[in-house]
Amino acid sequence: MDYISTRGSAPALDFEGATLAGLASDGGLYVPREWPRFSEQEIASWAGLPYAELAAKVMAPFVEGSLTEERLLELTTQAYGRFAHDAVTPLVQLDSQQWLLELFHGPTLAFKDVALQFLGLLFEEFLGRSDRNLTIVGATSGDTGSAAIDAVAGRAKVDIFMLHPKGRVSDVQRRQMTTVLAPNVHNLALEHASFDDAQAIVKRMFNDKGMTDRFAIGAVNSINWARLMAQVVYYFAAGLQLGAPGRKVAFSVPTGNFGDVFAGYVAAQMGLPIERLIVATNVNDILHRALAEGDYSQGTVTPTAAPSMDIQVSSNFERLLFDLGGRDGGALAEQMAGFEATKAMKLTNAQREGASALFSSARADADEMASTIRWAYEHCGELIDPHTACGLFAARSAGIGAGIPVVTLATAHPAKFPEAVERATGQRPTLPTRVGDLFEREERYASIAGEYGAVAAFVAEHASPKV
What we know:
There is one protein chain. The chain is an alpha/beta fold and 467 residues long. It has 19 helices and 16 strands. α3 (51-63) crosses α4 (69-79), α10 (225-241) crosses α11 (259-269) and α16 crosses α17. The protein is globular, with a radius of gyration of 20 Å. The two termini are 27 Å apart. It is an enzyme of class 4 (lyase).
């Protein structure tokens, strides 16, 4: 399996190369040259497998040539051995049609752990084969940062620089990053900046020859293909438990950067019978507007109680547009250049028609988010976080036919957003005991200007050169 750029002019790489590179040299994102596809018989044969074994089966075609099947299983077994629930991503039934897929049983209480625990091991595996060092630069709207830091803290040959918009992540999210005091971990709080500003700085650094000549810049954001690949697995896990491949399943996914829901699209291309992928946004609704009206135009970020979705540029949407546009890298490069220049884009007819075959979308405002948190508690006895509430609101209003289960991805533990949950339910969720001392730990981070020059200078001063 090799990987090509969505913008058509970067060299193809194998899985190892794409994992370490992150962003392609032409500014595009790596995708497999073709989607592997499993038969119904193959998928049915996986029913009942432990999560780590299922993960190795699903990911095997993507890593061919870089990892043996035996080594892949060793890595998945190690990655998912740290989860607090033996099922790793358990399903919880809400009513006759609605289900939650709990993705928050990893060490940092968010769905990002499912991919990043595995990605940290991949970095260690691949860097161990060479003499080079890796400088990871990432942006976070909350959960990616803590999950990535946990995955690579203390690992050899890796430095991580995580950018977050100062004051725009929850206290729990911030402390999960800033209380990790390993010498290879650097947290940067960007002043007067949004997540989109932080993400733009990261992308610019990948294309800054002065930086890439000195440092091997790598990515843990969902621009890194390996992260999306690992997220594909839990769609198969949920589908199999609910009757796939003999029964279709719909999924509702709270998303800002489009990575989590694009993993569902990949699962569908691989043969999982998905009835519909429901894209759930908060009032920062660029994805809802793009899917409903073909209007991918950047607006102003509005801070909400679901900060991980407070995004107006969804990096992974480019992967979908590439696939639906006939995989024409040159055409997509031109389309994305226009968006980057004008902050606006109209989807082509082919892109709109292709998306409508599988995707629908919904937007939840603050009242709808709060009422859904309240409904889940009063009717099902479940406390859910604001992001999951956006997904569940979309799921319950999607009009999916009777007999088709609808699975909402529960992306974060409710205790990461205790104020919002308490306002809606009167109940304040508590942190699990394994992270219960979070507010007693020492914090360490640097507050710097939310400008490219300041970030690049900090990274250059503290990172290890590539060799």
